[in-house]
Amino acid sequence: MIVLGIETSCDDSSAAIVRDGSEILANIVAGQDQYHQKYGGVVPEIAARKHLEHILGVIQHSFDSAGLTPDAIDAIGVTHRPGLVGSLVVGLTAAKSLAWMYRKPLIGIHHIEAHDYAACFAGMPYGIPHVALVASGGHTSLLYMTGQTLRLIGQTVDDAAGEAFDKVAKLLGFGYPGGPIIDRMAAECTPDEPGNLVFPRPMLNRPDFNFSFSGLKTAVMYHIKTQPDTPPRETARAFQDAVVDVLITKTLRAAAACRVNIVSVVGGVAANSALRSQFAERCRHEQITLYIPPARLCTDNAAMVAGLGFQKLLHQPPDNLDLGVDSHSGLSLAL
Question: 3-class SS at 273?
């Protein structure tokens, strides 16, 4: 079964074609960083307008790359929640139009669940019970997932991890997006840096699985103001160490509480090199099986949407053409 996936939940316009949920025939992404850089973050109206400009070209590019025509696909998967409403509408409208024109089944896809599906491209069996850490610019969530069921067990109470990376990069006088910049700067530190500079680990000692990164960002801001001579790379490294420590520790605690020994780490922050290497080390030590997608499948992409669409179509009927968008995840905290 060949599925076309469309993803426009935030500022990346993406279309992908995936066979049988595992073989990526094409995965095209048109980013918008250049349009949002001067604002230090995504501007929803600009994002929606750029999706309108990009979406048809991205879809056509995916067909050209796969060497296929729309008649060859069997279904269309599209992200319809959560995300920026204007952005979601563009992708869903394109998907509905193609589904109607070519008489193809339409499958609405949950963006957070799709991120977790990206771990299946790294070998994770679909539907196996596991704890998923979804960390990006818009989400920091811990979910217990089994089969078709998602249970939210922890989430950020303020800033998402990726948002904190963006804000700290801005405090240090660097550009957007901040995640790759902080990652590169932190990697420039020598083994003895950042020395005694240690930032707090928010909510690390609380018994729940929630996160908070706003206070950490504030601690970095005050450090920069009071210790302006600290090399930026050391501040970046100490900040990154704090985020990585919290994400790993809470995720592994959640896995123990849910009595599973499988963890997936997905979302844009999962592309961070320190997070990937330290997660692998901790999981080896604690005999946890870890699945992290390739970096190109951590950020928003339509391959994860198409792959999940294939699985959904095996287990449930397709959606109607009156399917709508929703900016909210629809997930509530449940322990």
Answer: helix
Q: What residue type is assigned to position 31 of the chain?
A: G
CA angle 288, 334, 179 (to 5 degrees): 60
Same fold, 2-117+298-315 and 127-295: yes
Q: What's the CATH superfamily of 127-295?
A: ATPase, nucleotide binding domain (3.30.420.40)
- Dump pLDDT digits (tens) for 177-221: 999 999 999 999 998 999 999 999 999 999 999 999 999 999 999
Contacts of 192 (CB under 8 A, 6+ apart): none
Query: What amino acid is encoded at 304 in this protein?
Result: M
CATH of domain 2-117+298-315: 3.30.420.40
Distance separating alpha carbons of residues 24 and 48, to the nearest angstrom: 26
Residue 107 has pLDDT above 80, yes or no: yes
Dihedral sign for Cα atoms in the order 312, 316, 320, 324: negative
Q: How many Å separate Cα 32 from the centre of its chain?
A: 16
pLDDT of 335 reads 59
Residue 213 has which token pair? 């990164």
